[in-house]
Amino acid sequence: MGLAQGVTLAHIARETTNVKRLAQFYIEVLGFEEIEAPDFGDFEVIWLRLPSCPMLSLHLIQRNPESRLPEGPWSSSSSVKDPRFLPRGHHISFGVSNFDSFVQSLKEKGIEMFEKTQPDGKTKQVFFFDPDGNGLEAGTW
C-alpha cells in the first residue's frame, strides 16, 4: 500500500498563455462545461469539468511569465507535431459514445488527427492536439 490512502484523481492542470482560447477548445470539442473557480488574483484560471465525470476537473492556468519550463509540447526543442506518435506518447484520453460523429466533427473543424482501430475491431481511437500542443485521445473500448 502507498503512503497516501483514499487517493483519487482530482484534476489535471494545463498552463497556457491564452486561457480563454484553450477553454473554448475543450468546451466546443469535448463538451466540457465551466465550473466555479477561486479568484487567484494575479493570474487567470478557468476550471472545467465533464458532466459525466463531476469529480474530475481540468484546470487551465495562465502561464507564469517567469517560468523556466517549456511553454508547451510544441515549444520544446524536440517537439513532435504529428498525431501518429501520440499512441505511445504523452496524452490525456477520453471515452466517447459517438466515436464516428466525433471524428467527423474534428475533420469539419480542420483538426489534424490520427485514427487507429485495434485488431479486435472494437477498440477505435483518434489522436489529436489541443491548441497548445497537448496530446489528446478519444476512443471506444
From TrEMBL:
Superkingdom of the organism of origin: Eukaryota
A matching Pfam family: Glyoxalase
All copies of domain VOC, residue ranges: 8-141
Family matches, as PANTHER family: GLYOXALASE FAMILY PROTEIN, EXPRESSED (PTHR47802)
Entry protein name: Glyoxalase/fosfomycin resistance/dioxygenase domain
